[in-house]
Amino acid sequence: MAPTVPSPDEFERAAIRTIAGLPDEFRTHLAEVVLRIEEFASAEQLASVGIASRWKLTGLYEGVPLPEQSLWDVPHMPPAISLFRQPLLREMEETGVAFEALVRHVVIHEAGHHFGFSDEDMHALEDAAED
């Protein structure tokens, strides 16, 4: 029997569980971040990060990182973390990484951008944690 494919609702619940499991100081700052589950990134989202293939982007943070925010800023759209379901499903199939673990990794990575961490910062932290 073939395994069932996680639905968009299951992706959302897994992402919410990840955020709920974070320490208070992080979870508090993520309360205003919108969580979106989409099948694929839009052309605009792909262009914003210089990726051509819609299969290569699994998640995206869009917004002003906390260290760059100011009380003087004009209100704008709330920050958002998007998870792209089809690329994540493909990555699960290709790598064998479990559903919850992959969603957790991507959510935490994108949340890191909200706190002002670069991709390089996050890779260094992950590498250090694996040692």
Number of strands: 3
Overall shape: globular
How far apart the termini lie comes to 38 Å
Q: Give Rg in angstroms.
A: 15 Å
Q: Biggest β-sheet, characterized?
A: 3 strands, mixed
- State the helical fraction: 40-55%
Task: Note poorly predicted spans.
Answer: none
Instruction: Find the structural class using helix and strand composition.
Output: mainly alpha
DSSP summary: helix tally? 6
Which series of helices and strands comes N to C?
A: HHEHEEHHH
Strand content: 5-15%
> In what order do the strands lie side by side in the largest sheet?
1-3-2
Mean pLDDT: 88
Please explain how this structure is put together.
- The chain is mainly alpha-helical and 131 residues long.
- The longest helix has 16 residues, at 99-114.
- Helix 1 packs across helix 5.
- The chain is globular, with a radius of gyration of 15 Å.
- It contains 6 helices and 3 strands.
- Strands 1-3-2 form a 3-stranded mixed beta sheet.
